[in-house]
Design brief:
36% of the residues lie in helices and 18% in strands. The protein is an alpha/beta fold. It has a single domain (14-261), classed as Rossmann fold, CATH 3.40.50. Helix 4 packs across helix 6. Residues 1-26 and 248-265 have low confidence and may be disordered.
């Protein structure tokens, strides 16, 4: 097979579940059986996510636009990153609650299905491109969490007639700071130039419709950098899809503290 006809399905990093991710998910589920579990959203006993907290995640997808990026692709997201939804994401991401992956994959799948091209039978499958995780994050969390989330969501999309394929085509090429305490300008500077295509990925992306996938949409700095790399490789980013979306909470360019400043409008 020539490089020009490279099929993303044949690549080792494309749409193939990471072996350790199955182990991590299995251990998480085993732990909930042996040690007991409480609701990640409210702390109710003996349930991974109670009915009320599940309902906070099971809302119709909404279209959001990114302040400061008027020419960016349309973005679709699930609920606001607040209350039970926020607590569930934090538990999944930072407290080893990998049993929540299927719950969080549902709003992501809904966001992907909101993109019209996903349901088009006339075109090739749309590529879902998850944002990459850093090596320290993978070691700390035991998995490429966004990739795992994208794989689960892709299965749900296909079950509902959507045409998608996950291609983990991006990698980080330098260290980046933790984004949590950074404002919008600092987040953009932190991510600028931090990503590149994985070896062999450029030909797989060229000419293909792509959706950038992430768990939380905050300032858009991460998905903007991912879009830059995909576009430079010849891919066409038609949308951004995330589980949840939040306004920026951090510091503005003058160093003043801001809280709840509107970002998505």
């Amino acid at each position: 097979m020539t490089t020009g006809s490279l099929d993303p399905r044949t690549l080792p990093w494309a749409a193939v579940p990471h072996r350790l991710s199955w182990l991590a998910t299995g251990l998480a589920e085993f732990g909930t059986l042996v040690l007991g579990v409480e609701c990640a959203g409210c702390g109710a006993p003996d349930v991974g996510l109670c009915r009320r907290c599940r309902s906070a995640l099971e809302v119709p997808p909404r279209r959001v636009s990114l302040a400061g990026w008027p020419t960016g692709p349309p973005a679709w997201a699930g609920p606001s990153y607040a209350g039970p939804a926020r607590r569930a994401v934090v538990a999944w991401k930072d407290r080893g609650r990998h049993d929540l992956t299927p719950r969080l994959a549902r709003p992501l799948a809904d966001a992907v299905l909101a993109v019209p091209q996903v349901r088009s039978a006339a075109s090739r499958p749309v590529l879902l491109v998850p944002v990459p995780s850093s090596r320290p994050a993978v070691r700390r969390r035991g998995d490429h969490l966004v990739r795992r989330l994208a794989l689960d969501a892709a299965g749900r999309v296909r079950e509902r007639g959507g045409r998608v394929r996950v291609v983990a085509a991006l990698r980080l090429v330098r260290s980046v700071a933790d984004q949590a305490s950074l404002g919008r300008a600092d987040r953009a500077a932190n991510l600028r130039g931090a990503m590149a295509p994985r070896p062999g990925a450029a030909s797989a992306l060229a000419g293909r419709a792509c959706i950038v996938v992430d768990d939380v949409l905050t300032t858009g700095a991460t998905v903007r950098e991912a879009t830059r790399v995909i576009s430079a490789a010849g891919g066409v980013v038609i949308a951004v899809a995330t589980c949840v979306a939040t306004p920026l909470v951090g510091r503005d360019t003058t160093g003043r503290r801001v809280s709840g400043r509107p970002l998505l409008h």
